[in-house]
Structure prediction request, 292 residues.
Amino acid sequence: SCIIEERSFVRCEDLVYGRMSFKGFNPEIEKLMIQMNSKCKEEEIEVDDKMEADVSDEEMARRYETLVGTIGKKFLRKRDQRVLKDDDEDEEVDEDRNSTIIPRKKAKKMFLKPQD
Amino acid sequence: YWVDSQQKRYVPVKGDHVIGIVTAKAGDVFKLDVGGSELASLSYLAFEGATKRNRPNVHVGDLIYGQFLVANKDMEPEMVCIDSSGKSSGMGIIGQDGFLFKVSLGLIRKLLAPKCEIIQELSQLYPFELVLGMNGRIWVKAKTVQQTLIIVNILEACEYMTAEQRRQALAKLSGN
Prediction:
């Protein structure tokens, strides 16, 4: 059914908050009064406004991109770390001398059979 | 739709803000008199920033402004001095001095109406502090005892005075 029972008069007649102070007798209560009474009017507006972020969304995305790389490097095994370093060095060298040096083969992961 | 009636006896209602008088302290719980058929209970943890070690400084005979957490006709009413978000927002122990008196519930509703003339006119007179409980109790505090008593008398008489008489009385007072 669509009947709601409301036993308090506060809701029916939109009564204000019961604690009041006038002419600066109690500054905290005066602040409260403004807060309470503006809550009724500005409730809807507050819900729409989001909190202003200190860092913008774009910056967050950029940060995360590099972050994943750096944290990922931490968990690589030693061999993989060395290989990564070589790759980086080779890349830098290539840029300087126009790829005269052949990049080293990637020697990771494969199990090398011991030669008899 | 609601039924408007003249009442003097208060019936506890959930969510209502009332002024209660501490009558007893039973271990962790205070017993408050709110003018209803039963005493309301108030736990010492229901204050802002209260922990088991950090108890609120409440004694018998103190005035408390709080709201009802539970209030139906089958159970003893329970009060708290804290919001649903954990803030006190003006509730708690009402300070020293001041004057507590009782009026009918209809007058309280009139005074709490959004744009109440009585309150607006009174606020022009002197600086004072006012706490209205939905159980018919009003607490007033002004700078001197005389000013407090004047405000008390005006509020009590407002029930039966017309707007004209009230304005005359206030004009006389602000003239003096």
Observations:
- Chain B is about 25% helix and 25% strand.
- Chain B has two domains: 16-93, 99-174.
- The radius of gyration of chain B is 17 Å.
- The interface with chain A takes residues 2, 11, 13-17, 65, 89-90, 109, 112-114, 119, 122-123, 126-134, 141-143 of chain B (CB under 8 Å).
